[in-house]
Design a protein that fits this description.
The complex is a heterodimer of chains A (about 280) and B (about 300).
Chain A lengths: L5 E14 L2 E14 L3 E6 L5 H9 L7 E9 L7 E2 L5 H7 L4 E4 L13 H12 L4 H14 L5 H6 L7 H14 L4 E5 L7 H17 L2 E6 L2 H7 L2 E6 L2 E6 L1 H6 L4 H22 L6
Parallel strand pairs in A: 3-8, 3-9, 6-7, 7-8
Antiparallel strand pairs in A: 1-2, 1-4, 4-5, 9-10
Chain B lengths: L1 H28 L4 H8 L7 H11 L5 H13 L14 H36 L4 H15 L2 H15 L11 H31 L2 H8 L4 H15 L2 H13 L2 H6 L5 H11 L2 H29 L8
Helix pairs in contact in B: 1-14, 2-3, 5-6, 5-8, 5-13, 5-14, 6-8, 7-8, 8-10, 11-14, 13-14
Classes of the chains: A alpha/beta (about 280), B mainly alpha (about 300).
């Protein structure tokens, strides 16, 4: 693979948490890359460091408590790659939300309860795009329409608690797309929602993947990762155990943990796949 | 929303009734004979049994307890609190109305100081948690919550009025007279609210919506002022609302210290003189204030929170 296609090259990423004198390593020497049009899956159980690594790349860990080392070279356009872990706070904020966007889990808690959706969407658009003020409202409505949300005008006036988790998750996806980013990080986007909504959300994410935006897809759900990812990293206890396509990993699990994970999930994956293959259901 | 307000207002009436009843009982429990006190205060030279009996009959004290309560309640509803014992030419209502403005000036000045100082300090302490500023403020909060207002008042008087001659020592003739006492009253509230706002801010800063706001690329300053501060103040509304009647009633000590002719001073004077109607009216007035402010700020809190506000 040539580096022309590279979007993100992470090398030796290590995240340590400092608490008084105790230091805990949350991500240990993680290296991976993501190419244009590719979806990288990060698979692992809770606390394995998969969300931590994405937060470290986004630069949203408070520097007073977290010590981040390594490099994360981000290629955008024809410019020289920038190391996200080295650049200044303000430059990093300009990348975040504009060139790299993120979809978080638990959409019900991710919006400020005191502001209507329209206000929160508008502030995101205003911050990250050069959209003229007059067009922001229309753009927000368009985002909702693109995400198959009915009566967008009403939804813009609603407060977060008045919308369902699935709807909020779709709004998040819409917001992640509105700036036409180079990379989207989806951090367990399907964990906090029911399975039918999960199915719809995966459908939306697959559409993004087809449009060619690079994506990092973080999940503990082998079935979902199987649907989404071209390549997979298995993480366990802060370390990456194995990288490769999911087929490779399933056929040849390199270590005890991966073997366990594969065995416990394989039956589920079969069911999930047969469900997806049913006519009339697939996206 | 409308239904809630009506329900809350209706629920206030039994509460007010309860307060008035308690207030009446407590004053009646005081172990001295109001008739005797009234006679002594009106400077009757010799108190005879006949005279006492006559005064009792005049004041209605020979009637059964419940009758006396209902009679008093009826008068109270019409804002007729009777006449002062010490000065029978003056009505209790007139006395209260005369003292109220000074207390209100003092309390509102304190409230302004509390809000103007505790919000920015609490905000900065949370944003720069564990910095030098935060540590100094934590020490300040720790100290001032432990210092009683009569002591602080004396220290302020000595330092600002006597040593530095910046403010007048006592009295209530100009606004500058009110500044020292207002600051004395405000001080303990300021430290309470610094802590409250700081803790609320820190709690909110750990929420997912802050993380997502960062993810959306919003500026830190905007996240803190627009989202975190607003959410933090939201949960302080009731506390701030309840401290308004507390400020009004809490001026007793400070008014006496700085010789301000307000409600607190009236109350203390009435207690020394056994001027029961005035004490009774004062206690009732404070009870009613607490209930009313609680009601009003509950409704404000409702209206401010979209999760509690229901669509009609």
């Amino acid at each position: 693979m040539t580096s022309d296609n590279r979007v993100l090259q992470v090398e030796n990423l290590t995240v340590r948490y400092k608490n008084r004198k105790r230091i805990t390593t949350l991500v240990d020497d993680l290296s991976f890359h993501v190419d244009r049009g590719e979806c990288l899956g990060i698979l692992g159980e809770s606390g394995s460091g998969k969300s931590m690594s994405s937060k470290a790349i986004m630069g949203i860990l408070p520097p007073r408590q977290f010590d981040v080392t390594g490099s994360a070279r981000f290629h955008t356009g024809s410019e020289e790659p920038t190391d996200l872990l080295r650049i200044k706070k303000e430059e990093r904020r300009a990348v975040r939300g504009r060139k790299i966007t993120m979809i978080l889990q638990n959409p019900m808690a991710c919006f400020d309860p005191l502001f209507p959706m329209g206000t929160q969407m508008a502030e995101t658009v205003r911050e990250n795009t050069e959209t003229p003020v007059k067009e922001i409202r229309g753009l927000c409505q368009q985002v909702l329409k693109d995400m198959q949300i009915r009566s967008p005008e009403e939804v813009l006036l609603k407060y977060p608690h008045q919308l369902s988790g699935g709807m909020l998750q779709r709004i998040m996806i819409g917001l992640a797309l509105v700036t036409k980013p180079d990379l989207i990080i989806a951090d367990e986007p399907t964990t906090a929602i029911d399975s039918i909504t999960q199915f719809e959300i995966i459908g939306e994410l697959l559409k993004i993947k087809e449009q060619g935006t690079a994506m990092i897809f973080i999940s503990h759900d082998l079935g979902v990762v199987n649907r989404m990812a071209n390549r997979v990293i298995v993480m366990h206890r802060a370390k990456s155990l194995q990288q490769g396509t999911l087929a490779e990993i399933i056929q040849n699990p390199g270590d005890e943990y991966t073997r366990q994970l594969v065995n416990s999930r394989l039956t589920l994956v079969d069911q999930f796949n047969s469900f997806l293959r049913e006519p009339g259901v697939s996206a | 929303m409308k239904y809630y307000i009506i329900k809350r207002v209706m629920a206030t009436f039994p509460l007010l009734l309860g307060i008035s009843f308690l207030c009446f009982i407590f004053i009646n429990l005081i172990p001295s004979d109001p008739a005797e006190v009234a006679l002594r205060l009106s400077q009757v030279p010799i108190v005879t049994d006949e005279l006492l009996a006559q005064v009792r009959a005049d004041m209605g004290l020979d009637k059964p307890f419940l009758m006396r309560y209902l009679h008093w309640l009826g008068d109270t509803v019409r804002l007729d609190f009777g006449h002062s014992y010490t000065n029978p030419s003056r009505t209790v209502l007139g006395e209260l109305a005369r003292s109220l403005p000074n207390t209100l000036i003092l309390a509102s000045l304190s409230l302004v100081l509390v809000i103007a100082l505790s919000i920015p300090i609490g905000f900065l302490s949370a944003v720069y948690k564990d910095s030098l500023f935060d540590r100094i403020m934590r020490g300040f909060v720790f100290m001032t919550t432990a210092m009683p207002s009569y002591w602080i008042g004396l220290i302020f008087m000595w330092f600002f009025a006597i040593k530095l001659r910046l403010f007048p020592i006592s009295g209530n003739t100009s606004l500058s007279h009110f500044l020292l006492p207002a600051f004395t009253v405000a001080l303990s509230y300021i430290s309470i609210y610094i802590r409250l706002i700081r803790n609320n801010m820190l709690l909110n800063m750990g929420q997912d919506y802050v993380l997502y706001a960062q993810v959306r690329g919003l500026k830190d300053g905007m996240i803190l002022t627009r989202h975190v501060l607003k959410n933090s103040l939201q949960s302080c509304i009731t506390a701030i609302g309840m401290s308004i009647p507390q400020l009004i009633s809490g001026t007793i000590v400070v008014e006496n210290l700085f010789a301000i002719n307000g409600l607190g001073r009236l109350c203390i004077a009435s207690i020394f003189n056994r001027d029961y109607p005035v004490i009774q009216a004062y206690v009732l007035f404070m009870g009613v204030l607490f209930i009313l402010f609680n009601l009003v700020f509950d409704i404000i809190q409702m209206a401010a929170d979209p999760r509690l506000r229901k669509e009609s």
